[in-house]
Amino acid sequence: MRKRAILEFGPFREEVLGGPGSRGLVQEGEDVLPGTPLLEMETFRGAPFFLSLRQGLGLQRWDPEEARPWVLKEAGDPVEKGEVVAQRTVGLLKSARQVFSPVKGTVEWVSWQRGEMLIREDPVHAQPVVVVNAARQLDIWPGTLRGHLVVREGAEVKAGAILAAVPSRLGVQVVYAPVDGRVEKIDDRTGMIYLLRPVEAARRLSPFYGKVEAVEGDRVILRVEGARVWGVFGEGAPVGGPLSLAKEPGPHLAGTLWIYPGPLTEDLYQKARRFGAKGVVAGTALHPLGHDLPYMITEGFGEGAMLEELAAFLKELEGVEGHLNPRTQVQAGGLRPHLTLSGPGAPKEGRAIRGEASRGEAGEAVILRRGAFGGKRGRVLGAAGDVAFPGGLRLPAAEVELITGERVLAALDNLEVIRYEAGG
Q1: Does residue 206 sit within a domain?
Q2: Structural domain boundaries enclosing 130
Q3: What is the pLDDT along the chain (424 residues), one digit of tens a residue?
Q4: Whole-structure pTM value
Q5: How open is the CA angle 226-375-239, to the nearest 5 degrees?
Q6: From residue 287, how far is each of 229, 234, 298, 378, 390 by CA, in Å?
Q7: Residue 35 falls within a domain, yes or no?
Q8: C-alpha 295, offset from chain centre
Q9: 248: number of CA atoms within 13 Å, CB side?
Q10: What is the DSSP letter of 47?
């Protein structure tokens, strides 16, 4: 039977990862708090990479409407190194002109007017040497590259600096440095320019109050005492801060994680963002809200509210330190978003709450999870067999009497039984 955790109590075993060559800064048994440096490593900044789609697709004239079918990625899409981001077929033989992503990262924007794309490199996968295929970008023979260079080997350059330029029918065609660095090598045989990036020191910080259980190479294992609230969907990057139980958004949300039991509307979400909230935990939302402000919903999409018992639990935790990880992977065995509470004031034991799928047995106390009655409670009167629902689907269902006295038919996968277990 399908089950899901709603509220759990620790201890939790949390893994904080560094990168290759990481060095531990803490020792086994040491107490840590949010912001404590755990690991140190050498890394490189994730740089923006500008791609000329017009040049890569072999176009003398760029027509945004004509080019749209050829551009395969849009803003927000993740890309792998070497992945095709634009492609068109040319000539009688239908050969392909392709534009490849030079790095693993995310498409930050596409300029339809200029025919350009910006890809923001993932810092975790950044490499020490960046290779610029200058001859190809300028459409010249590799052996003639030195005659068009603006820089020399050993020169320090900033991202966006011009490395080489040639006259063209459209004015001057240039090659830009995609990153800060030093011109390490200019290869006359291949027409490549090699840029060596400056090394930076980076640290991984603890997101929680806890105790170091182990330091194992490039990772630190923490034992975290406290409570964890599980959600069903979220968006944005992990973030920490004290909880705010304010009823309405306002300046008091600045720097906090806002707990809002009701439906999170677009208006409330944007107000929380403008007032400086670090994140939001709400009962429901009408639709996905984007990545501008990290958020998590505990019940699902619709107009319902947070489970009453969960809302009552969080109501007493004003100011307690929380860490929100809204990342969601919906595949089987994927990641669920969650809020971890640790440190002073965080409950370390209590009644855990879990939900499980209804069997449709008479007498079950259930909650409807979505639809017009989402969030409503009731009691199963009995199984109703397969029922046709709007859209033509026939699903196993049960008859439910709501606490209001109204009787409704609900699909079994829309009914959840709430169980309480000893925790801590």
Answers
A1: no
A2: 48-196
A3: 467 789 999 899 999 988 667 889 999 999 999 999 999 876 655 667 778 888 788 787 889 889 999 999 988 889 998 999 999 987 776 778 899 998 888 898 888 888 888 888 887 666 778 889 999 888 899 999 999 999 999 999 987 789 999 987 666 788 888 778 899 999 989 999 999 887 767 788 999 999 999 999 889 999 999 999 999 899 988 999 999 999 999 999 999 999 999 899 999 999 999 999 999 999 989 888 988 899 999 988 877 788 888 999 999 999 999 999 998 865 444 578 999 999 999 999 999 999 888 888 999 988 887 777 777 889 999 998 888 887 778 889 999 999 889 999 999 988 989 888 875 5
A4: 0.65
A5: 35
A6: 21, 11, 13, 25, 20
A7: no
A8: 11
A9: 1
A10: P
* Separation between Cα atoms, residue 374 and residue 322, nearest integer Å: 28
Q: Which of 240, 238, 200, 213 is nearest to 38 (CA)?
A: 213
**184 and 65 belong to one structural domain:** yes
Q: Quick one: 333 and 230 in the same domain? A: yes
d(CA 420, CA 350): 10
The reply to whether 307 and 189 lie within a common domain is no
Dist CA 72 CA 87 (whole Å): 7
CA distances from 330 to 229, 233, 360, 414 (A): 18, 9, 26, 18
HSE-CB of 163 using CA atoms within 13 angstroms: 34
Domain-embedded: residue 18: no
Burial class (CB in 10 A: 0-12, 13-18, 19+), 312: exposed
Give the separation between CA 191 and CA 147, rounded to whole angstroms: 11
Tokens of 353: 């709450």
**Other residues' Cβ atoms within 10 Å of the Cβ of residue 287:** 8
